[in-house]
Amino acid sequence: MKKALVLGATGSMGYALVQELVKRNVEVTAFARGEERLRAFFANQNGVTLFPGDMFHPDSLDQAAADADVIFHAVNLPYGQWEQKLPLLTDRLLAAAQATGAKLVVVDNVYAYGRSNGQKVTEETPKQPASKKGKIRLQLEQTIKQSAVPALIAHFPDFYGPHAGNTLLHYTMQGILSGKKAYFVGNQQIEREYIYTPDGAKALVELALHDFAYGQNWNIPGSGVISGAEIIRILREASGYRRRVGTVTKPMLRFLGLFDKMMSEMVEMMYLTEQPVILSGEKYEKFIGKVPMTAYRDGILQTWNWMTARR
């Protein structure tokens, strides 16, 4: 891989992917809608070409992908746009990849797996979506697999890390940073899985370098599991925050959803905070090597330090 196109380059995983690719001396085209945000993130960074554009515009995508060996799809749309826009975006990506001969690497979540049975899920675990959004993700996966484009799909747990702003843990950290009332989404005693975005990017770029990885699904797990209570304890030590951290519950989201459609869209995904899906990394370790894993304490503190430095 000599040149890569990263779609959603200013997003949580997109930013980390750009940094990892540059470290490996891959020339990167960083694609996002907002030119100002692209410049804020990557201005004067060697090896990065900025490409502000509309990913739903055929000419824009085709031009950005013209010389790319690999297209990394790390675009994150608001929930309310998934049903109408994600299928259209997928069709556009496949068309651009086919026209340019590029391979496609897709950043995906765990929604298509459905509810947990208490065991780690592998790539062979039957996908039985338990939500509308999970069904959409599975439909997109099937569309990609039925195409002629060499593509790999990587399933990740929830993100956290520097520049990972639109995430559940960032929401909690931002509340603590403000010194006001902070909230944690879901039961604070249940252990869940998260992935530090630099780890996820490192694992995904490594996958993308192997031809045999295409045409397959891959799970990229985090560093085990951790409870909300433990996360909050680490943040209290780092920040000196002493106020009670509230819990965002499903009834609370339902109420907020009466006034905010985004909140109402989150209700159906709350099952993941009650029955977390935990990913198995056995396949990755068998065929690629050790999954990059930063200990939660280290990753949380590094994320916190980044947030406080930008305050």
Automatic annotation (TrEMBL):
GO terms for cellular component: cytoplasm. Coiled coil: none annotated. Residues 4-220 form the NAD-dependent epimerase/dehydratase domain. It comes from the Bacteria. GO terms for molecular function: aldehyde dehydrogenase (NAD+) activity. InterPro entries: Epimerase_deHydtase (IPR001509), NAD(P)-bd_dom_sf (IPR036291), NAD(P)-dependent_oxidoreduct (IPR051783). Pfam families: Epimerase. This is Nucleoside-diphosphate-sugar epimerase. It comes from Brevibacillus fulvus.
